[in-house]
């Protein structure tokens, strides 16, 4: 395979395999039908147009299909667009499979599993540790496959576990600096807080919101899971209520979808750790694509700000 | 008993039984101790001062105690205040009990029970009807005892059931005018929407917020109850998700504590019926104490507005 | 005539009469001129393109003209678009007229008139009844022709009267449940509240905002009408002031264009009845076009929410 | 008479005539009745306490009565308070009358009348000039007696006319700098904009809000007056609509009670001139009581800001 | 030269010199490359398309180049667009230069210089006068060349000085009406308030934001300049602090980028004068292009309002 | 000395030395003068009343004086209040001095100095290191004496340095987890961000806002200091601009007083570290005074929330 779609410049010719992640039939302003495709590999994605598409093309080139594409990188409304010269479905002998074309966390699943195990091992409160262990066991497969979000940050395979582990590392250091903090409650809250996304999103590879996700939301769904776990484990201490509260309040404000604002110290800290990790990841993503001495594109969830990359950082 | 504390004017002498609903020891600006009491009977409440309180008075005159009081109605900061001349605990032979002194719904519990039964009988969808019947049976006692809120509206014994029944009556008429409305879902949502208050509030007579209530809120607690009921009744249809959504979204906005805004027609209607009934009750309460041709006091939860009572209403 | 433009699918051929409601000359990205038309019949509307339009086409195909169109239903930016093969002006013998092509209320004008008459008959307060009768008589023609808005809800011929009658039906039931409510004032307020739209909008069939409408607004204009009616009828009671207040405050909030918020009980109720009827109509419109088990499009004036149509509704 | 209540310091003895502007019967924390009075002369006002008030004192010392007071200036909650040693009603021979005790504009009524006449004389547009002349004639007495507000700024006798004249002077200069501005429309708008206060407020000397004022507001009432004037003068030009718009929109924002925001250039300018004059008056009032090198008290309607009085201003 | 691009109608042929202010290479929906140009002369600007652009066209037709263009005025998305038939670079003998094609203030630089000199001459406070003189001398060239903003108002050569002089004229009249106002401080604040734009913007002719401008803003940069001037002039009085405060607070609100809200009278007045001048200029610009009896386009920084141009203005 | 004022209960007798931090002469509602004092020692503060105060008491008992007090702990409006029986000024032989009575950071100045030295030693970028070293040297005394705020958090002697050091510790760990972060810029920003408080506040022991502080604010003043330092050290790199930006934007939002929002990654992180440290300190302060199983008082700067202290934390 070539070095990946993200590294091509306008004017270059592309000739390699890509995964179709979206396919829409449209009609051009001159009245002719075409297929608007969104294609990707592990490095990024690109819009593409298959002009003068035939009836059978619609059947061949659907979401989820791997294709061999030959075309030229053009530009449309300031974004690169691939003008397709030739396209065909991948075949048996091509030796390509879907998982080669999706983005993955920059660390291995094994390392993530190992980390979460270590953090759980640090916990002293039996009730919180048992609840946490229950979640990690019960949702093991999804936890290490799902993204943390459909876009913006940690929106890749294992993104959920990667987000959790980074937050746990921040929590460990914060608890080291402020010994009053209940590390066990904070760890349990971090591991649980976004697990509801497993029900809110359809699948790990090209996640969309489920009906249940849109009507109930991951926060409410996870509170139910905590209740279910507590019942099965026959845990009745105040820890169950506290953990539910951490899940409920982790968005920090009513306006951001938490029915309760944080009213336990560790809930407040959990919210800030969540903000820190997601914001740093978004800034890092944008800055990595930016030349020193210039600004990033506007980052929508960071209040549409652009960030400057100082030249002296590179010294 | 006399006609009730609410009907006394400044300058009159009061001599009857009252219930202490709050008692605080304070020190006057001249340095002398006194007891600040909040006293009530079925018609209303009044602030009172027991000047030059002795040590033993603190033990005698506590929250929940019925007292015989003799004193004069004065005024302090524009509010009536009872200056106590003589006070004693009620005794055996006085034949008074606490339930005589609390405010009750203006309709009987029997009528409320009958009404709810009728509305449930109208329901056609078996799943929603079974869920609703489960709640009414499971929480029967509290449902007909609890207030709908600690203050502002329906804050009296059976207030919760009174609020529900009035909302159901509104729902029946609205569904009559708009036949597209799913009456069953709307009825089920109305009956369930505030039942979580049974766990959010400590008790029906002088309710305060429980710790669980402050940390989780009646909305999240009620979603758990719906889940529990569905499990026990082995109901798995989409009705369970829809009913949870109606409960979750009934405050209408994220800022008002709903983690999801209404995304089902009946959820939106439920929110407006809830607003209508609570707002009309608050206006009626205030207007009833107001002379035609004048304005009510400011009503805090109605954006601090005063309402004018036209003179011609009385024609 | 065929079954109406709203029932055609992409790919089908259309061949029938339509009314031009908007016509704009444009230049395609390949530099060639075309006419962008908006065409409608009683069932709905569709965008259309007349490619390679000639000079005389601009004169023939203007707003308000009925045309016979032959073409194919295509799609552009996810919306259906009619690609015109052949188009001509309607002729004498075609037997079509404009009123066949505009949307009308789902009930007859006669029924609406009858209803309003009945509601007025219920009124007991002579001043309010006379004022109301004056309005219905004075603006009779427009009242039963105008829409209640240019878009979103009740935006069809007789929409204003349809909105008023439905609100009156809600008011009757609400007043039945809360006997304290002054039904006469509420009825009068409902009938008057939006009548200013008759001056705010240019005409009933394809209404646009008048200059006066944009500078003064229907609320202020209607207050003037109440004053004028009171003068002509020589009514001097407090009812005039109260009715003006209901008109002034019916948007409920300063931010929504009411110079005063509701300060009379019936004003507050009027605002909520207005919200209920307009919101239910918008949800019903959207849900009617939606399959069970899916979500509607985002509804802009409902805070851009989509609504879910449960599958079990159809049982 | 002495130099006026505003010039007394804490600890000094006061012995002179004052006007009672408010009288409230209260009960002290030691249980004894007292009268809380608000007293004023032309220089300012002071709170006063008549301890151990007798029954007949309530009848003697009411709002609107002039009294001879002897007492000492004390302090209560950081505000001066007059402790009354001796008080009596003014008598025939005292030669005092109410108008000596109210605050008046710093310019004479004659000068204000002269000014307004001159500005009207400058107007060229006959319709606007006739409308303006009508208002000045029709409401002549009130225009030169009413305050512009009950508190904050221009809250003194003739305050309304003083506010109008200062705004007209600003308008003349602004129109001189921007020749595109329609001076006639701006003058007419300034003279009309707050005239509705004549109906909104009860009387010029100790104004309170009328019922009509609270339910309709001076903006809507003045629009009616413009309509009435136009009818009587048989003026039908666009000037009537424009003048109504200037009145309607002069608060500048919906949130501030204007049902329409400014949509005519002169309406926008009118709003800013109104802001400038009221804000400068409030700052001047506060700064005049402040020593150089210190800050004023917080001014509530100026977003609760305090203003610094530089020392070098006094050079 | 012809009368200028702003005066051409759709359908007319244009044949004259224009300056390229922006040039972007794009690909049409039919896959062919074209150049999207923004062209201007002293009267206004127009979008243009050079279809079927060749490789060398990109080098010839760049930002800053003057071209001779022959083409036809078409329309695209309701805006005029020039379809280029023929285009060439301007040559020696054409006798055109860039400064003929940029917009300039409607008054001469000499007059602006004269005015500022006069206003400085009026100042009595030596410290403020010396600081002001320093700025005018130090930044003389830029002050009379820079625009006051990149768009919306005073966005032309010498716009900054034009804005300052108009504000000074308003200040002089306001200080005449309110003698308490410190005219010297107000003048100094007006001259200084926007000078930081000289560092915030790249250059006077086609200004963009500098990196420093985006990270620090003209407000903070100007405070530094005041400090630097005070140091060099060895001025230590309170005037330096006051002047910095006027600069800091001139946006009026924290939300609008002022780290402090106005806390000196002249700071508050400066903010309102700034608002008045910028708002009147924007309204005048829009109204000048509008026919009497119609509305302007929406003006984005005026809360997206359109303004009505009354017909009687023209009388 | 006794164990400190913070440990006394209502009803107990206090007899020890305290520092007067505020003294106000007032008049009781019975007309008698008294002194309202605010007294403190190293453990906390208490309101006190000296009833029947004599003229000379005002001279003896002023802010800053140490007194020997004998009295009884009472309660007024739910807060403890000391009723003074006997009071005298401290004398020579009492061996008490002011610094014994002020609150101090829970760590030593030496340790704070050592820490800051270490963090500076870690820095690699010469420009940032030199700037930082300059600040620490230039403001050495104040840096280790001033509080970080006048109330809410780190409002004690050395609070500023304590806040800085804790933030640096957080920064070190965060930079360890995200290697992309420029640790040097973040350290420099943390050390500089609040140094302007040295000019904003009057003195370290009982700080009030200076005039300059109220008019310019610590943010703008610190930007000037960075400029001054850069000039003196002849540093011209982009680091100066970046450091100014971190100072300017550290409040995170315009509404919170930052004229620019963060537009450099380290500025965003600095803002979050500042929030984390101040919020955790406020929660810890409140929770420390709270029994397990109960809620803290409302914490005003934490959006008025109360925090629950779980019982299981104590395990």
TrEMBL record, chains A, B, C, D, E, F:
Keywords: Exonuclease, Hydrolase, Nuclease
Domain HD/PDEase positions: 156-288
Entry keyword Nuclease: yes
InterPro entries: HD/PDEase_dom (IPR003607), HD_domain (IPR006674), NA-bd_OB-fold (IPR012340), NA-bd_OB_tRNA (IPR004365), YhaM_exoribonuc/phosphodiest (IPR050798)
GO terms (BP aspect): rRNA 3'-end processing
CDD domains xrefs: HDc (cd00077), YhaM_OBF_like (cd04492)
GO molecular function, one term: nucleic acid binding
Matches recorded under Pfam families: HD (PF01966), tRNA_anti-codon (PF01336)
Superkingdom of source: Bacteria
NCBIfam families, per database record: PRK13480.1
Protein name per the record: 3'-5' exoribonuclease
